[in-house]
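We now fix the convention by which a protein and its fold are recorded. The integers have meaning only within a learned vocabulary of local backbone shapes. A record is reproduced here so that you can trace the correspondence yourselves:
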Amino acid sequence: MGVEVSVENLTKSFGSQNIWRDVSLTLPQGEVSVLLGPSGTGKSVFLKSLIGLLHPEQGSVIIDGTDITKCSSRELYEIRKLFGVLFQDGALFGSMSLFDNIAFPLREHTKKKEDEIRQIVMDKIELVGLTGAENKLPGEISGGMRKRAGLARALVLDPQIILCDEPDSGLDPVRTAYLSQLLIDINAQIDATILIVTHNIQVARTVPDNIGMLFRKELVMFGPREVLLTSDEPVVDQFLNGRRIGPIGMSEEKDDAQQRREQEMVDAGHSDGGTAEDVRGIVPQLQATPGLPERKAVGRRQARVREILHTLPEPAQRAIEESFLEEERAQENGREAARKTQKVGAGSGTASTSSSYDDSSYQGSDAQTEQFPAYRAGDKAL
């Protein structure tokens, strides 16, 4: 079961440069959250503050009842065992093989024997599609493969809290889709609390239970996905649609005069840089792979939304009610698919709840390393 993370009035600066101030939010226990924001707004700094790698000037970070901004080094060391962290660049040890990189937390924090460690590590390597690459050094593989190796290391201790800093960077759209499904399946299995920092709008719209956004040194919004996806907040609308028109500029700060000039150009027929389709609105959330447990986070999130539904604009209320109906239909479809899978497994003498990505014909640099089996129900090694 995941652990709630409560952040209160957090402020961080580097010298005279303030990164963000008075940030308060709660990552609900066992739910998947996404943090958005323009480049340079301190999203990675926020993740590092959650695990005590950076110390804020004020505020608190309460994890499992302990404020890590005030605890001792020994207490912080124990708290960090709850975390699995995927850093933005993978953060692998360059002189170690992928196997040894992934095994490092097990050797550092447990007393498991090497044969146990090998089994767990190879399971994680298979999980992220790197089978056959375990003896390679980080410098011998692509950036996307290093990112997946970093994810395997983040999962190796069966963490209760998983932090992912731009997990999709360096990955193509297909592998990003597999990775998104993997995170949802992990949450379904162990109810882990997950926070993802990303610029990928497709990930932000389809994966999380909660969405937040940093802009101009403040937390603009944080809450259930339905609230942000139906929001009329200008900065949210601009970011989700990837348009130049709005408060966000190249250097983040944009004055009114520049906004007027850009709007005049668009009114004259110049492209605003965004997609032709407005992406606002609630799209279906990813469901766990058929055969896995239903995600408990969905019911918890919907209950919170229903409590505040009457406070939202009427168009948002209607869109949210419709989205709940769609989620119920999707869950029923998942149950039906699971029943069919079980029948097929029983008829063939096997009970299979996993699928795999067959890339045997691919002859590129990632050949023979691209299997993404679905997260297996009942797998003791995660």
User: Anything to note?
Assistant: Confidence is low (pLDDT under 50) at residues 350-382. The radius of gyration is 22 Å. DSSP finds twelve helices and ten strands in the chain.
